[in-house]
Structure to design on (573 residues):
């Protein structure tokens, strides 16, 4: 019973860590008003702060941890202050959306606590990187872990949130993954204009369309997926901000932080970011704005490149999978057998996680009716580039293709589908608009 | 303070959904197991005693021989190396001892491991099926 109470307490700790002060909300000022959207800003900033903390954390030094404790106290102050304001109102107003969110996180966390098996790659790589920090190591010790090119932010989050939990068990770190996953879904669906009951059904349907306990077995795809959801939503709001002539710098700074976070989680994320960049370069927005995005993405990329170089990690995109690629042999990869195998596995993977199919269906309908909408065009390009990327990832693999497809098709499709959840609320908003 | 009457419907909806989702995710069964069994018992229950990561065997050796230093674990099986299970032990100064998991399997695929760890050079301290706790002769 005590452990269940600790899980409950741990969720409160995460909420307070991610609760943004009014200064942070004013700084980004991206129109986030409800509690879920505030937590969305808070969690992105929290991950960014922990990334910075990982740079400065040194062996046998607790200064960074004291700073994070101060940050916690600062957030706690605002959390209590806002809660008191809330209770000053004579009637109890239940924040229904947040209540559902909290119940889901709690149910999924209890589910995780009784299914502790850690995935294959997670045991081989991500857990090992987490243990570097658990055993008082710092980023310079990551060079002694397998797969030196793999980034480490997901492992650092895993370490940090298991360290700040009361029992200190490793899975408390993974509860943070559940928290981020649900915040991102709730946040994307908050753009829906449906009434509470319909929106509630939409949220539940979307969560269960995607949720699978295996997403939280230590693999990093769920982090990429969740941050891609927030990135897409922020980009959607950024495009809309032009229509209301709002300043775009706050959106750009928020997007820059999300991109930095994503790039420090997994190498595949680089492709996700390039899909994002290529898609936005091809839609009709001002060249000046396109240059800003190019500058942001390349500065983040070079920052990561030089930091990895400094801490003796390498910058290969994939260490093992693509070493046989050469222009002379390129045509050998493209055989009909390989095409059929890829199609077969992708078909089953998309049934397993139907968001990619559902997103494609909604996108086709929306584009048929609103084919000049910049955001839909952006999503169409992201969809096409994602399909191209997935095919190329398997066409060019040096691993036995069937083994690679069996182990990676689901995960790759899941990562890329982060762009398309937003289509669900947008589709229903349009239906609502047409009814009126 | 009084609860807004119009919110009864929402509260009922939330409670009903909670019950449905809880049932679908075996929430009550999971909560029962979490309260009844310790973290370690639940963790070991997820893995084979001897096979794949063999955490049961690793824990048995740790308890029986009161290990407080890490021991090299060589997994001859087609599964991740579970060295992380001993992560909270001190670094080893004596590498005479070792744990072999799934020894005898995958000889074609892992011939380099079989060449590297010649079994004739080791004496068996403890054995369960394909899991061995050994010391150098």
């Amino acid at each position: 019973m005590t452990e269940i109470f600790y899980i409950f307490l741990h969720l409160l700790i995460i909420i307070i860590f991610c609760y943004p002060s009014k200064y942070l909300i004013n700084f980004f000022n991206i129109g986030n008003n409800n509690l879920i959207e505030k937590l969305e800003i808070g969690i992105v900033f929290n991950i960014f702060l922990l990334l910075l903390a990982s740079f400065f954390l040194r062996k046998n030094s607790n200064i960074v941890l004291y700073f994070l404790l101060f940050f916690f106290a600062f957030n706690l102050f605002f959390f209590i202050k806002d809660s008191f304001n809330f209770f000053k109102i004579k009637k109890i107003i239940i924040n229904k959306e947040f209540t559902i969110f909290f119940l889901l996180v709690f149910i999924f966390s209890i589910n995780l606590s009784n299914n502790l098996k850690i995935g294959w790659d997670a045991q081989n790589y991500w857990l090992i990187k987490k243990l570097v920090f658990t055993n008082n190591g710092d980023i310079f010790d990551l060079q002694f872990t397998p797969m030196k090119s793999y980034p480490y932010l997901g492992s650092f989050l895993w370490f940090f949130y298991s360290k700040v939990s009361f029992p200190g068990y490793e899975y408390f770190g993974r509860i943070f993954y559940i928290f981020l996953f649900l915040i991102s879904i709730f946040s994307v669906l908050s753009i829906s204009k449906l009434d509470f009951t319909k929106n509630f059904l939409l949220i539940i349907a979307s969560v269960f369309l995607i949720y699978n306990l295996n997403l939280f077995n230590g693999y990093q795809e769920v982090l990429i997926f969740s941050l891609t959801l927030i990135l897409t939503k922020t980009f959607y709001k950024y495009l809309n901000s032009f229509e209301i002539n709002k300043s775009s710098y706050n959106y750009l700074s928020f997007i820059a932080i999300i991109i930095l976070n994503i790039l420090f989680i997994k190498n595949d994320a680089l492709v996700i970011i390039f899909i994002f960049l290529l898609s936005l370069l091809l839609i009709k927005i001002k060249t000046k704005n396109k240059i800003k995005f190019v500058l942001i993405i390349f500065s983040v990329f070079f920052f990561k490149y030089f930091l990895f170089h400094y801490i003796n990690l390498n910058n290969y995109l994939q260490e093992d999978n693509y070493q046989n690629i050469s222009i002379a042999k390129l045509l050998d990869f493209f055989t009909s057998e390989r095409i059929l195998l890829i199609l077969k596995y992708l078909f089953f993977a998309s049934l397993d996680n139907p968001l990619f199919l559902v997103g494609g269906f909604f996108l086709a309908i929306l584009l048929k009716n609103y084919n000049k909408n910049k955001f839909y065009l952006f999503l169409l390009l992201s969809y096409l580039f994602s399909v191209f990327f997935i095919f190329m990832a398997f066409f060019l693999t040096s691993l036995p293709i069937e083994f690679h497809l069996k182990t990676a098709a689901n995960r790759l499709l899941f990562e890329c589908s982060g762009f398309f959840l937003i289509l669900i609320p947008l589709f229903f908003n349009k239906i609502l608009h047409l009814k009126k | 303070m009084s609860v807004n009457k119009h919110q009864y419907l929402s509260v009922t909806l939330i409670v009903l959904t909670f019950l449905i989702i809880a049932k679908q995710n075996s929430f009550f069964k999971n909560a029962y197991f979490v309260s009844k069994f310790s973290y370690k018992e639940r963790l070991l229950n997820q893995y084979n005693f001897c096979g794949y990561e063999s955490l049961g065997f690793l824990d048995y050796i740790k308890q029986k021989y009161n290990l407080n230093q890490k021991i090299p674990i060589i997994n001859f099986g087609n599964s991740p190396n579970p060295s992380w299970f001993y992560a909270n032990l001190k670094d080893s100064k004596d590498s005479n001892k070792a744990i072999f998991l799934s020894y005898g399997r995958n000889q074609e695929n892992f011939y380099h491991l079989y060449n590297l760890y010649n079994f004739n050079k080791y004496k068996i301290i403890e054995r369960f099926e394909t899991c061995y706790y050994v010391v150098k002769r």
